[in-house]
Design goal:
- The chain is α+β, with helices and mostly antiparallel strands and 496 residues long.
- The strands form two sheets. Strands 2-1-3-4 form a four-stranded antiparallel beta sheet, with no helix packed on it. Strands 5-6-7 form a three-stranded antiparallel beta sheet.
Length: 496
């Protein structure tokens, strides 16, 4: 039988031998506790972004002074730092392969042998002994709920760069990581809620060919979505079906207003614009990128999740429309695009609302907005004479190159710039139209939209990978080569 020692990782209190043939995983508890054996360990760490930070009790400890600790204590503090960094990076929205790369680079820089495997909702970190004896290794399982915060993600990415380049001590790195984690969001709640109707209004005009009447309906739909998000903050169970509930309310509202007004309206510009922030286009693109980067498990899992979100949104819109049964459903949807000056103004509304919802700090706004403009302009201009997939690839290529160049400025991070740029290209609305066609028994159109969605995502992934190859610029993180397992997979910085 293996003897397992239950040790509090915060206070360092060891006791309580437990016997069993197979170690049982630790249940999540307040703070963080570690189950140790000679071969495996498990650490339970709740989510950083939803008020239950597992790093709170660890990283808030008095920063480590290297002169006052033994070699064993220094080794433990390095491992704690890496585990907290893993939770932070993944919780703030980093992709799985990029998280693996950064954590491997930091571990190598700190002089500890570690192997990292990142997945959509958890991370596995294995610490190897100095003699590489597998019987003395530690395996940490870190459950994580994902989120997206480009401000904190960018700051954590820069912290990784400092650690790898040895420009900060471990003591200073602890302090900076704690400060980043404790930092407030960039905008108050009421500003975040106003971003939903603003994105509905702007996306209706910019992306879906709607008129001012359509944009007004999308704005009301955005207000409904914002109200549901506020309710979801108080009643967590609603978040499990937030996409379906929001789509049902928006579908009902759109059908009632358009039926009562007898005015021409555009389905895409009214319904989908109000739900634009729930569209899984970014998840689909990340999934295809991860598959292209040979992260097969993460990519497939993320792709299945994105498809399920599309199904929820499509089904919700259908249910909402059906609930307004007294409205004539045979009324055709007619789109009336606005003049060019409205198109330009609405683009800035898109950029502002997306930057707020991404929680980008004001210093990131100029480059993120410019990246979005580059992607949109190149996609539109190239699409006039080239295949849509090729034009999307060229736009993603330009965004990736611009993101790599912009990192020459000290406050800029390539990942946040690239994320904002590809948000205007992602195929979420295409997938939703495919689901809507399937629900209307139009299987051929539904399958065509589904393939179009995957092709657009693949075009973006290829463009981003090509941008990394082409740039190969001096600003790239010059991390020392790995000697750990899977080093060939981690040697090059992933594009996103």
């Amino acid at each position: 039988m293996a003897e397992i020692i239950v040790r509090d990782t915060i206070e360092g209190v060891a006791a309580v031998p437990v016997h069993g043939d197979t170690p049982s995983p630790a249940e999540p508890v307040e703070g963080s506790r570690l189950l140790e054996s000679r071969s495996t360990t498990h650490i339970a760490m709740p989510d950083l972004l939803h008020g239950e930070s597992a790093t709170e009790d660890i990283s808030d400890k008095t920063p480590i002074d290297m002169d006052d600790f033994s070699d064993a204590s220094v080794e433990l503090s390095k491992k704690r730092f890496l585990l907290n960094l893993a939770v932070a990076l993944h919780s703030y929205g980093d992709t799985t392969h990029r998280t693996e790369y950064l954590l491997g680079a930091v571990a190598d820089s700190l002089g500890i042998k570690a192997d990292v495997g990142a997945f959509p909702n958890f991370i596995l970190v294995s610490f190897l002994s100095k003699d590489s004896d597998p019987a003395k290794s530690e395996l940490h399982h870190l459950p994580i709920k994902g989120g997206l915060d480009v401000d904190k993600l960018g700051r954590m990415d820069m912290l990784c760069t400092k650690v790898v380049k040895h420009s900060v001590s471990l003591d200073e790195a602890w302090k900076e990581m704690t400060a980043i984690r404790k930092a407030d969001v960039c905008f108050p709640l009421w500003v975040q809620m106003l971003a939903y109707p603003l994105s509905g209004f702007s996306c209706s005009l910019t992306f879906f060919g709607g008129g001012l009447w359509d944009a007004g309906i999308a704005t009301l739909g955005g207000l409904v979505v914002a109200g549901l998000v506020l309710i979801g903050m108080k009643f967590k169970n609603i978040n499990r079906v937030m996409e379906f509930v929001s789509a049902a309310f928006v579908g009902f509202l759109t059908r009632v207003i358009t039926g009562a007004s007898n005015a021409d309206s555009c389905f895409l510009a009214t319904s989908i614009s109000a739900l634009v922030w729930f569209l899984p286009g970014l998840s689909i693109t990340q999934a295809v990128t991860e598959i292209a980067s040979r992260s097969m498990i993460s990519g497939v899992a993320r792709l299945v999740y994105a498809v399920s979100i599309s199904l929820q949104l499509g089904f919700g819109l259908s249910i909402g429309s059906w609930l307004a049964f007294w409205v004539n459903s045979s009324t055709p949807y007619i789109c009336h695009p606005v003049a060019m000056h409205w198109y330009v103004l609405s683009f800035f509304g898109v950029a502002i609302s997306f930057n707020i919802l991404l929680n980008a700090n004001l210093a990131q706004w100029p480059t993120m907005t410019l990246a979005s403009a580059i992607g949109l302009v190149i996609s539109d201009l190239a699409g006039q004479s080239l295949d849509p997939n090729l034009s999307t690839m060229l736009a993603a290529l330009a965004i990736g190159i611009f993101g790599n160049i912009a990192t020459q400025f000290p406050t800029q991070n390539a990942l946040s710039i690239i994320l904002s740029g590809i948000l205007v290209l992602v195929p979420g609305s295409v997938g939703l139209r495919g689901v809507n066609a399937l629900l209307q028994n139009d299987a051929v159109s539904g399958i065509q939209f589904g393939f179009s969605m995957l092709l657009i995502a693949l075009s973006i992934a290829i463009g981003l990978i090509a941008s990394r190859i082409i740039s190969n610029s001096p600003h790239r993180h010059h991390y020392t080569p790995y000697t750990m397992a899977h080093s060939s997979r981690l040697r090059e910085m992933p594009p996103i």
